[in-house]
Write a structure and sequence with these properties.
Blueprint: H1 2-10, E1 17-20, H2 25-42, H3 46-53, E2 56-60, H4 69-83, E3 96-100, E4 114-118, E5 126-130, E6 137-141, E7 148-150, E8 153-155, H5 156-159, E9 164-170, H6 180-187, E10 190-197, H7 200-207, H8 218-222
């Protein structure tokens, strides 16, 4: 029943959904995603880098906690700093994906817009977003943009409205923060393939639940302050 739900709701076809355990999370990140982000940070072509960075997207239901956006984003930021021998206090470097989380009408940037920090050196770093008028990019100084977060990993909620070639869905250890609808939303972000990292029993329980179970958990799931 679980397999049928996953393949029928992903839109990616039979065999395109893979489940691995939490114990293999770090190994999976190192072997499948770290080099992906290293290549992006080495890129000197904004168009190619932007397209590549959002080929893969990590999603999770939670903003805070062990398997949540903050910890996963920090994992990749620290791993990339180590690889490139960057100072620990360096806040920005080439190739960092970002998500606008607050409407910025002056700069015509809106909640959910995905961008990339890009520049040949630290002095030239800009936040770049695809232009709506042409195939180029709108570039902003870091100090001119507010209301954004790093986007190596996004909450499922914040990924709504976006599509990616492949999705890696990292589940929490308990199903309290999940529902069938949330899993469905995550699966349908992917055009081709999905990797789910978590406990199959937790996933099966979540698939059996509807959002009525979710009341009162909005802040924990979405990181929303009332």
């Amino acid at each position: 029943r679980l397999k049928n739900f996953l393949t029928s709701h992903s839109g990616t076809g039979e065999g395109s959904v893979r489940l691995i355990s939490h114990s293999n999370l770090s190994e999976f990140f190192r072997e499948n995603l770290l080099q992906h982000y290293i290549d992006i940070s080495k890129s000197v072509d904004i168009g190619k880098a932007y397209k590549k960075v959002f080929n893969y997207q990590i999603l999770t239901p939670l903003k805070r906690g062990r398997f949540a956006t903050e910890s996963i984003n920090n994992y990749f930021i620290n791993a990339l700093k180590t690889y490139f021998h960057l100072p620990k206090l360096r806040s920005y470097f080439n190739g960092m994906p970002v998500l606008i989380n607050k409407n910025d009408y002056a700069n015509r940037l809106f909640n959910g817009d995905l961008g990339l920090i890009f520049g040949e050196n630290s002095a030239e770093l800009k936040i770049c977003f695809p232009s709506q008028e042409d195939s180029g990019f709108r570039q902003f100084r870091l100090k001119d943009i507010y209301g954004y977060e790093f986007a190596y990993c996004l909450t499922v909620h914040k990924s709504q409205g976006s599509e990616f070639e492949s999705v890696v869905l990292v589940l929490p250890e308990k199903s309290d923060f999940m529902s069938r609808e949330l899993i469905y939303t995550a699966l349908t972000r992917a055009r081709h393939s999905v990797v789910i990292i978590g406990n199959p029993d937790t996933l099966a329980e979540a698939v059996s639940l509807k959002t009525t179970r979710m009341s009162g958990l909005r802040e924990k799931i979405h990181g929303v302050t009332p």
